[in-house]
Specification:
Helix content is about 5%, strand content about 40%. It is mainly beta and about 240 residues long. It starts with a strand and ends in a 9-residue tail after the last strand.
């Protein structure tokens, strides 16, 4: 599919992950929240794929016990959560209001200004920084192991969606990405553990993974209140309201 490249990153722990390269010039990255879609309960990975029509779905950031998003969230120009989380310093922005702006980017709120009343983009999802543009790892070195989902901005403006197949610490993943084969610039970490999920579907290829298990091993996946959907620009269903 134009704008979407899939690889399995291997080479030893923690380098065992599904990696999808996304070109925002060809594809739209859009946060999707279950209540905004008229759903009474969070959806499973399969349900999100079926109901959204997206070619790629992966889990967004963390959420509160009532399933509300933990941070600023906007979908197709509609504010879902307007309060900026005071600690999380990463922000995915996509679909700019100005034609000359990048189609998508990551803001580091420790350095980049952001006004939630005028974000300048139609799509936004806040989470915490994994590493920044200076190569500094922004998470503590702990022993907390879990499957992880990370969104990486490359130096060429493309993005990597990284969903691991083995549990490991955030610090180890950050170090592996910084030292790995990809031209990484900065990255934000999404939710992890059972929420670390991804599904891809195109004309000639499909793949699903949750909590490190691939599609053939999946039974029931943990429902996700918020996901990021990837849509082709030519798809009329992704046009602005």
């Amino acid at each position: 599919m134009p704008g979407l490249e899939w690889v399995m990153w291997q080479g030893g722990d923690p380098r065992d992950a599904c990696v999808v390269r996304v070109d925002p010039d060809l594809l739209i990255m859009r946060p999707l929240y279950f209540k905004d879609k008229g759903e009474a309960h969070p959806l499973t990975l399969r349900q999100w794929m079926e109901k959204s029509g997206a070619n790629l779905i992966f889990n967004a950031g963390q959420y509160y016990p009532d399933y509300s998003y933990m941070g600023f969230l906007m979908s197709d120009g509609k504010p879902i959560k307007t309060k900026v989380h005071p600690i999380f310093q990463g922000m995915l922005l996509a679909e700019p209001l100005e034609a000359t702006a990048p189609k998508a980017k990551i803001l580091d709120l420790a350095e980049d200004p952001f006004d939630p009343s005028t974000p300048g983009y139609k799509e936004a999802a806040q989470s915490f920084m994994l590493f920044d543009r200076h190569g500094t790892i922004r998470v503590k070195r702990t022993s907390n192991l879990a499957n992880r989902t990370v969104l990486v901005e490359q130096r060429d403006g493309k993005f990597l969606v990284v969903v691991t197949r083995v549990p490991f610490t955030l610090w180890e993943l950050a170090k592996a990405l910084l030292e790995g084969p990809f031209p990484v610039r900065q990255a934000i970490s999404m939710d992890g553990g059972d929420e670390a999920q991804i599904a891809i579907k195109s004309k000639d290829f499909s793949y699903a993974q949750a909590s490190g298990m691939v599609a053939s091993e999946l039974k029931e996946t943990k429902p996700l209140p918020t996901v990021i959907g990837i849509f082709p620009r030519a798809n009329p269903s992704t046009s602005s309201r």
